[in-house]
Design goal:
By secondary structure, the chain is α+β, with helices and mostly antiparallel strands. Helices cover 24% and strands 26% of the residues. The protein contains 2 helices and 4 strands, in the order βαββαβ. The relative contact order is 0.33.
Length: 109
């Protein structure tokens, strides 16, 4: 089963370059050091939108589906993560999603 940890975010006005450097070069590598996080990829909003959007950036992390609670606890306990003042924390949105089409894991693993 695939589980995604999805983060929608915006940079602070005037700090987009700093935001992108920090997110790609510092933050993603730090999060991937946390047990349970398996991969990460970032995206930016294109001009071809069907409706107005509230966030310019999206990060999608694949997390351990067998231990979602443990992975999230590991994230909460990672006090060593460096946050940047270039991310607008007032607009951040986080969601956790599981794939609908993945087969349920068998009892044998």
């Amino acid at each position: 089963m695939t589980t995604l940890y999805v983060v929608k975010s915006n940079p602070v006005a005037g700090k987009e370059a700093e935001f992108n450097r920090w997110y790609s070069e510092v933050h993603l590598p730090e999060v991937l050091q946390i047990e349970g996080f398996q991969s990460a990829q970032r995206f930016f909003l294109t001009p071809q939108q069907m409706q107005p959007q509230s966030h310019s950036y999206l990060a999608i992390y694949t997390i351990d589906s067998k231990n979602i609670d443990g992975t999230l606890e590991n994230l909460r306990n990672a006090t060593w993560i460096n946050l940047s003042d270039a991310i607008d924390m007032t607009t951040i949105e986080i969601g956790i999603y599981q794939a609908l089409d993945d087969p349920e894991p068998s009892p044998d693993g």
